[in-house]
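Sample intake sheet
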Amino acid sequence: TLVKSSGINAEYGQNVINKGYCQYPENYLRYKYFEGISVDLANNKEDCEQEVSHGGKAVKPTWIETGSHNVPAPECLPSPWSRDNHHGNNMDGFMNSYNWTIPEDWVEEKCVIRLRYNITAGELSDGGFDPAINASLNAEKDDAPTGIEIASIYGLDKEEAVARGYQFQQDPVLHVFKFNDGDAEIKLEININTNQFGRTFEDRSHVFEIRKRPADISASAKIHNLNVRGKRGNIVQTYPGVEYDFQPNRLEVNTGDYVHIQWTGADSNPQNNAGQGRAGTDRNNMLVLRERTWDNGFVEDAHGCFACNYPEVWTKNTSPNFLGLAREDIMALAFLTPTQNWGDMDELDDAGTYFDLGLRKMTTSGIWRYLCTRNNNFTNRSQKGEIRVISA
C-alpha cells in the first residue's frame, strides 16, 4: 500500500478558512430538472456570479459565504500499511483505525462521516495522486495504449517499449526477456485494468449522532463504546464488508471507567443473505459463555471460554456474573428489553433494530467472554467478544 500525506489540503479546508456555495433561483433549478436539462453548478464565487438564462431572461445566482468552522485543521497522516484485499487489516491482524478525540462542546444530532480510498500504483507519477493523471490520458479505443508514458521507468526508448509491449494499456502482453527461445518469443500477459488506476475506489458515507455527556458523569471519566459491526450474510455476501462482530471484540478498561453498550441493525438486508432469524433482519444480544470444564494447564481468572458455544447457566438461586452488572441489565442484554415486543424471541425476531443499555460503571475487575446466541453459528461464523476490567 502506497501512502501519502495531504497536508496542503488541510491548509485550505473549511476548518480554518471561509467557504461558500452558489445559490441558484429555485424556479431555475426546478425548470431544468423537469426539462431534463443538466446544470453544471458553480463551485467558486467568480463562476457563480455569471448570469444564466432562464425563460429568455437573465438571472444571476448568489454566492453565499458560510464562514469557517473555526476549529483546528484536520490531521493529514500517511495511511498505515494494510495487506491488499484484506479489509484493511494491519500488521497486528486487526482493522486499521483512527483515534479521534471529539471536542467536548460538540453535540450534534446529524453528523456525516465520509470514507474514501484510492487505488495507487508505482507505475504512475506520484503513485497516481498527480492531478495530471486524468481522463484526458485515456486510450482512444479499447485495448489501445493510454497516454501514460512508462517506457522511461524501465530504461527503454519509445520504439523498443512499443515493440516489447511496455505500454500502459489493458492486459498488455510483454516481451520480458530480450531474446528468443529458438523461433519462439517468450511473452507474458499481465492483468491490468486501466479503469481502476488513480481513482477513488470506495466512497461510503455514514450518519451518526454525538450526544452530550450525562451531567452525572465526571468530565474526567473515560467512556468506552461497545457496538456491533458487520452485516447479515456469509463472507461472500457481505464483501467488501464483514460478517457480524462485536466492536471492539477485545475491550480493556479500568475499574471506574464506563462502558456504553449499544448497537443498531436493519430490516432491509437482501432477503437471500445467509443468517439466523427472520430473513433480511439484523439482531444481536450478549450472554456470558459457559465456563471451561477442562484443565488447560494454567490458572486464569476468566469467565467463559472462547472455544465454547453455549452460554453460562443461571438459576433463581444463582447470581449472574457479567461485568458486575445487575440481574436486570444481564436480562436486558440477553432479551433486549425494554426495546423488544415480547413476541417471537427465540432468535430475537420481534426485538427492535436498536438497543441501548446506557452507560454502566465498571466496578468489578475480571475477564468476561461472551457471545451472541443468534449469530454465533457453529462452523459457519462466530460472534464472540472479550472484556477485561483491570483494577485501577
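Comment: Residues 257 and 379 are 35 Å apart (CA to CA). The mean pLDDT is 84.
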